[in-house]
Amino acid sequence: MANKSLITRILSSIFFKRANIGAVRYARNAKSLFGLISEAINKSGGLSGKNIAAFKDQLFIVTRLLKAYASGEYRQIPWKTLIRIIAVLIYFVSPIDILPDFLPIVGFTDDIALMLWLFSGLKDDLDKFSEWETTNEAAQNTNLKTIKIG
Hints:
Layout: H1 6-11, H2 14-27, H3 30-45, H4 52-70, H5 79-93, H6 109-121, H7 123-149
Helix pairs in contact: 2-5, 3-4, 3-5, 4-6, 5-6
């Protein structure tokens, strides 16, 4: 077990297994999902450092994707990917995990490592969502111009 990487240890931990089970419930309940998104954003607000800005940018893309999913606007995400995202967010917001958050500095190491693992594994899905978001935003702006002109 000592030779396993941190991510491997997290993914095989009881904490992540519980998060995975809970993820299905969150995926089926928009109100709970919005609450989880809020908790993740709040927790990320307390993080600081030179590389945290890029981390927060990726987190905000993921949370926008989940908001669009929960509102029914965006459903082009595989179920397995959705559950993985939610499970990682559950783990991220939980103060009790492999490295409890109350441990100074070290407590967030596992959370951030798992989030970075998620971001790198979802690159294609996040790119597709960003493209959809841009297209959808452009369409909404066109509709607003049409309404104002008309």
